[in-house]
Task: inverse folding
């Protein structure tokens, strides 16, 4: 149980939600497989594969959104519809009109849906009700929005806000690279992306390459800004910080993972040990990231997350 990405949001500290109440409200929207005519289906699943929708280890909670979608490429629908349209045209002596073709494609879609393959996925979200964190293990805000939208539909009250910091990640990362120095507790690794703010959007990517010296500083001087930067925290966690304040390629290093090696008696015990260790490490990392970005904007100044997708325009940078 190790998250790979973090899409970060803020809940009020000491969030007024008990685990029993959360379990009860999520149960209203449990996952059901796609029916024969359903293109997709979403709902809450047990993170551990049992009947419990909110898995708790200590005061840390884990929930999981299940999603299933039919694999029915539009090219397949078009091919079958075109073949059917030719047969109809031969029978009636003239080609189908645009509206008739559209109706035929919809009919073909309904015919093929029951035979389509399905793909199922599970998206995890970590809730820290004590410190007010909600983190979704998703590679993009759009994928995390699936979880947020289902939470809005399931919960009576969902006081969620975007995480906002005094410094934007772009300006902070630029300062770190220009000074060849990361903030306290962090080290700069060897992956980085710099992108021009001009219309051409020229980009330079460094992979396993030293970021010290004049080369990177030259790109900064030319107006390129860092959009991704690989960092390591306390020699325990490596990750990539993005311009949108996302944490990607999260990797708990051996010094962390070795703490539970051989200590778990079964799969559930291992799951719980990894989750406890992961959340403990993240409880140290996240405040450190916020501090490195100048601290968190006061709650009264931060904007809530409203219904709809969270996009780059929502961010303060």
Result:
């Amino acid at each position: 149980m190790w998250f790979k990405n973090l899409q970060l949001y803020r809940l009020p500290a000491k969030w007024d939600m008990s685990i029993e109440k959360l379990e009860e409200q999520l149960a209203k929207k449990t996952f059901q497989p796609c029916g024969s005519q359903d293109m997709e289906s979403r709902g809450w699943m047990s993170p551990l594969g049992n009947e419990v929708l909110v898995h708790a280890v200590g005061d840390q909670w884990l929930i999981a959104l299940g999603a299933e979608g039919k694999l029915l490429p539009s090219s397949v629908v078009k091919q079958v519809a075109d073949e059917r349209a030719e047969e109809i045209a031969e029978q009636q002596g003239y080609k189908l009109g645009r509206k008739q073709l559209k109706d035929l494609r919809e009919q073909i879609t309904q015919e093929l849906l029951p035979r389509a393959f399905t793909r199922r996925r599970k998206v995890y979200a970590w809730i820290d009700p004590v410190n007010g964190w909600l983190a979704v293990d998703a590679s993009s805000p759009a994928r995390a929005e699936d979880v947020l939208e289902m939470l809005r539909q399931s919960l009576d009250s969902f006081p969620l806000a975007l995480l906002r910091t005094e410094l934007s990640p772009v300006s902070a990362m630029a300062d770190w690279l220009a000074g060849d120095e990361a903030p306290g507790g962090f080290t700069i690794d060897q992956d980085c992306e710099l992108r021009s703010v001009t219309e051409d959007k020229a980009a330079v990517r460094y992979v396993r390459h030293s970021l010290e010296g004049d080369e990177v500083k030259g790109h900064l001087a030319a107006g390129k800004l860092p959009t991704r930067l690989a960092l390591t925290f306390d020699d325990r966690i490596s990750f990539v910080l993005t311009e949108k304040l996302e944490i990607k390629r999260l990797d708990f290093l051996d010094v962390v993972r070795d703490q539970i090696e051989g200590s778990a008696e079964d799969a559930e015990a291992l799951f719980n040990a990894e989750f406890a260790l992961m959340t403990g490490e993240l409880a140290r990392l996240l405040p450190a990231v916020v501090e490195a970005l100048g601290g968190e904007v006061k709650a009264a100044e931060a904007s809530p997350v409203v219904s709809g997708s969270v996009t780059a325009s929502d961010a303060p940078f």
In short: Residues 74-114 form one domain. The radius of gyration is 24 Å. The first strand starts at residue 7 and ends at 10.
